[in-house]
TrEMBL record:
It comes from the Bacteria. It holds the Pfam family Aldo_ket_red. GO terms for cellular component: cytosol. Residues 4-304 form the NADP-dependent oxidoreductase domain. PANTHER family: NADH-SPECIFIC METHYLGLYOXAL REDUCTASE-RELATED (PTHR43364), OXIDOREDUCTASE-RELATED (PTHR43364:SF6). Transmembrane segments: none annotated. This is Aryl-alcohol dehydrogenase-like predicted oxidoreductase. It comes from Nonomuraea soli. The lineage of its organism: Bacteria, Bacillati, Actinomycetota, Actinomycetes, Streptosporangiales.
Amino acid sequence: MTFALGTIPLGTTVSPEDSFAILDRFAEAGGTMLDTANNYPFWNEGCTGDESEATIGAWLAARGNRDGVYLSTKGGARPTVPGDRTLASAEGVTGKALRAAIEGSLKRLGVDHVDLYWTHIEDRETPLEDTLEALDEFHRTGKILKAGSSNMPAWRVEQARGVSRAHGWLPYTHLQLRFTYLQPRPGALLREMGHKLATAETLGYVRHAPDLTLWAYNTLMFGSYTNPDKPIDPAYDHQGSTERLKVLRGVAAELGATVNQVVLAWHRRQGIVPIVGVTRMEQLEEAIGAAQIDLDDELFARLEDPA
């Protein structure tokens, strides 16, 4: 399966029973990559941030299929003040904070290691050495296999990778940023706290670093591509988007695919791993079907240059 399943709503917006059904179907279809964090979904009233990891942990225990799952989680953005629904009190990515974060994640997930561990936010108040030494420690002790940076600009990632190289530590090999087919106006502010965009600089950086992989979140824009009840974020509402949507819909019609499927295929065509969050089984089936959509050079060129 060529996408990672986003798990923010599992166990909360999606009931535990339905969450298990979604995870079962994803695995049945050949899906392996699960993306979670130690704070999902803390911003919802009544939630602590334990819920997503705990639901995945319960499913792994019930199914006994840990070896068939590529498990990715994050630390650094969990609030330290009870009831805080913002990032104002986020734990950060100091070595001390991450040591507590990884232990909490492993306990909730019911595993002894994760395949990929992300620092969830950029924390410029913490020296890179403090963060990276902790990640290397986790790797040496078998708690993580790979390390990734989430919501960090390309220049900062390269700076971090240089520090890791100098010390012989585990380097960042994965980036996670917000990215989709529509592009926001330059300088536009996003409504969602903590979200950082993949830029042309990011794409160029990843393209020329063979050991780097980009995972993209918010790929389907909260359903805005197809759901008239979910208008496009004002940051993306401009003439350029109108032109891109016209071409996108035309390509989808030619392929007999949905708009969402073409968006996911567009990510894959660039070697990007799209993260897809679902709340209903039909949404998952649509994403699974996107694996059958291949964009040839001509279609990709049309999508890239809609004018």
